[in-house]
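Z., the sequence and structure:
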Amino acid sequence: MPVLWLAGVFTVLVCVSIISITLWQLREERTHELAMANTSVANLSRSMAQQADDAFDQADIPVAGIIERLAYDGFESARSPRMHDYLRAVAASVEQIQGLFIYDKDGNWVATSLGHTPDNANNADREYFQFHKAIDSSLPRIGSAIRSRTTGDQVIPLSRRINDADGNFSGVVLATIELAYFDRFFDRFDIGNQGVISLALADGTLLARRPEITTTTGTSLAEGELFSRYLKERYEGTATVISMLDQIKRIYGYKRLDSYPLVVLVGLSEYEVLDSWRQNAWRSLLVIICVLIANLLFGLLLFQQIRFGLKAESQLRIASHSLEKLALQDSLTGLANRRHFQKILSLEFNDGGANLHPLSLIMIDIDLFKSYNDAYGHVSGDKCIIAVALCIRNSLNRTGDLAVRYGGEEMAIFLPYNDARGAFALAEKIRLAVLALDLEHMGNPLGIVSISLGVYACLPHECPTLDAFIERADTALYTAKHQGRNRTVVR
């Protein structure tokens, strides 16, 4: 009897233990599914925020370019056929732009990318026009979704203020972005039957949503938990909340854009996320009596394999990022390397799409560097190169400017959207910064390390090839060296 009793107790204990372990495993799998869903929505929200940032950047760049043209040519140039052709070409080249418009200070249409201008067309009553008229700001403004008066489509307005030479309000440049563009982009993602993707203004005004609910466009989400609580605490994260629009509980990833007052929301239905887990739980409970031990061993093995796979994937991602950084960065100076330089310049000179803004290139060479190496050694030579590179890096303050170690002691700075005057001013700033280092160089007539700089600036159509662009800047550099070094020469 004691042996039978002990065997029964042991059997019961084993069964209870296996059931307990299985229930624990199911709970862990549920937590894991929710964690994976949180990771997925976080990644999706980051991806879509980057896409939205890029979409609005691509729309804002031509708007800013139009402002610059008007500042240079005068507002009356907006009425010319050439400006109309330019607006039409730009609008056709950017997928998300529905139209480009220029309004005068009274809201009258001056120019548009559309095929025709309506008679007596005036947009002075639009919210964006009233905003720019009242607020003197050079920053772009994104407004609530509106219906286009020319096409009837739902669009998002992106606008900038035009000032005259005295700083007074003289009009508005507007780019309208199709809501359908975001609908097409949202459709690429599988978010389940009850998932949702939304784009909203920072104040909670809804701009676009998938699935589309026509009655919610323009609705305010400010009272929802995401805006009233989570976005006030952090601009990026995940949260599980009940939607104020359809009362569905979802796992949301949210992110506020870095450059614009917009928020991207990605939500997966918690019920759908756990659907696979529920099915697995029922199957496990039905067969647990027959295959308790086998099922437990298989589950542990599978769990270990998943963890190993995720760890391997994480290590591979880290290694890939490190290799990519090494491939594009000079290991000594931290500047971009020549490969990166060639890649960036190739983007400017290919496809003929960069002919709307000036390009500048500064070539830099440390004067009499061979004699410096011979006198002080290669270790000191490397330190000298690093010090000059630091002066270059500290002198750059514009996004898009690229500092490169071109080879040996020679460096270069590529300046898109910068003319010869701006490039020369930057070159002189760097030259003086190097002199201020006061690095001893007895082989230099100055007694300290100095640099020579060659500057070349042009529009891409004036210098049709990448090699010619570099060669002309290089020629300016050699002119500076032949004229006595420690100077900047503009070609």
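The two ends are 106 Å apart (CA to CA). DSSP finds 13 helices and 16 strands in the chain.

Let me know what you think.
H.
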